[in-house]
Amino acid sequence: MTEYPAVRDPNRCPTHPGALLEDILPSTGKTKTEIAAMLGISRQMLYDILSERKPVSPPIAARLGKLFGDGAGIWLRMQAAHDAWHAERETDLSNVPTLPAERFMA
Questions:
Q1: In angstroms, rounded to a whole number, what is the distance separating the alpha carbons of residues 88 and 81?
Q2: Segment 57-66 long-range contacts (CB within 8 Å, at least 24 positions apart)
Q3: Is 1 part of any domain?
Q4: Per the count of CB atoms within 10 A, which of 15, 21, 56, 72 is most buried?
Q5: From the CB of residue 21, how many other CB atoms can be counted at a distance below 10 Å?
């Protein structure tokens, strides 16, 4: 079997989980209000996630994972990748040194 490694442009921001959610909601046949009720969150919270104004928190990830049957992990990993990408670009790291990795290898 041939393996094809995933190649992603490091300058492209990872997708916010709200964008994926926005794409898959129509296939559920439910309204956003119904989905919010099923998740046990306010309609405004769902809209804030869909518009990428709010992150997917661990409790929301657990609810999404249960609702869609894919577990919380996928939602949390998407949010973490999105957050890490922004943090690496928006945080001043100029005064933080990098320790050589071989110092920690035993």
A1: 11
A2: 61/17, 63/39, 64/17, 64/21, 64/39
A3: no
A4: 56
A5: 20
Dihedral sign for Cα atoms in the order 25, 28, 34, 36: negative
Written as one letter, the residue type at 89 is R
Is the pTM of the predicted complex or chain greater than 0.90?
A: no
Domain hosting residue 51, numbered range: 17-85
Query: Count of residues for the chain?
Result: 106
Q: Is there a contact between 72 and 62 (Cβ–Cβ < 8 Å)?
A: yes
Residue 106 counted as domain residue = no
Confidence category of residue 4, pLDDT binned at 50, 70, 90 = confident
In a domain, 51, yes or no: yes
Structural domains of the chain, count: 1
The reported pLDDT for the residue numbered 35 is 98
Q: What is the CATH number of the domain that holds 29?
A: 1.10.260.40
One-letter amino acid of 32:
K
